[in-house]
Amino acid sequence: MRVRKPRLAVLAVGLALACSRGPRLPGELTFAGVSFEKARDWSLGEVSGAVFVPPGEKLDTAPRQVGLLASRKLVTGIDLHDWVMKQYRAAAFDHWHEEETADEACKVGGPTGPTIRPFVALHVCRGGAGVAACAEVDDGLTDAVVARCAGGTPGCWDELCRQMWETHRAGLETLVRQVATSE
After folding, report:
1. Which residue, 33, 86, 94, 123, is the most exposed by fewest CB within 10 angstroms?
2. What is the pLDDT of residues 19-39, one digit of tens each?
3. pLDDT in tens, 96-141
């Protein structure tokens, strides 16, 4: 009599590994009519992510970066947003401005060292199909914008966030829904 237990065990391990991986993130994407390619992917606990830059750009100097994050363990947009904000607030750079709702944020920050460029970043997080996902756009800031806003111009950071939301909300919503509903 032939016993198939080893094959079954290998199949069970393979299925367990496939199910424990985070949602599949693309190798490239289009955002605001521009092509982006994956510059880095990562996994931290129950969350996986990828950062995309325009072809030929480097992660630390790209004028725009697009990020995707996903989790099968944190299944609501609110839970994943809370995780993102905890990571953001713990990061070692200057935090100049924050605006957030339960599942969205605008964050503005800058360097405490030579490897971080000044930035404004928006993210939206949504849940769906057993997956929570966030999409983020991160634009570098010019020295002139930093000088004006950090110099105390009233409402400057708020206006910067408003303009970014007006320009990028629809694109972020499209990306996050694609990840949150993909298998």
Report:
1. 33
2. 445 677 999 999 999 999 999
3. 999 999 999 999 999 877 667 899 999 999 998 899 999 999 999 9
Please give the Cα distance from 38 to 52 (Å, whole number): 4
Report the distance separating Cα 92 and Cα 40, nearest Å.
19
DSSP 94-134: EEEEEEE-SSEEEEEEE-SSTT---EEEEEEEEEETTEEEE
Contact indicator for 46, 99 with CB cutoff of 8 Å: no
Percentage of residues in the chain having pLDDT higher than 70: 86
Partners of 44 in the β-ladder: 47
For tokens 């393979």, name the residue: 14
State the virtual CA torsion across 87, 20, 53, 100 in degrees, nearest 10: -40
Distance CA 141, CA 117 (A): 8
Measured on CA atoms in the order 149, 153, 157, 160, is the torsion positive or negative? negative
The residues pairing with 52 across neighbouring beta strands, listed in sequence order, are 38, 66
- 51 CB-near residues (< 8 Å, 6+ apart): 38, 39, 40, 41, 59, 65, 66, 67
Tokens of 95: 């935090």
d(CA 129, CA 122): 23
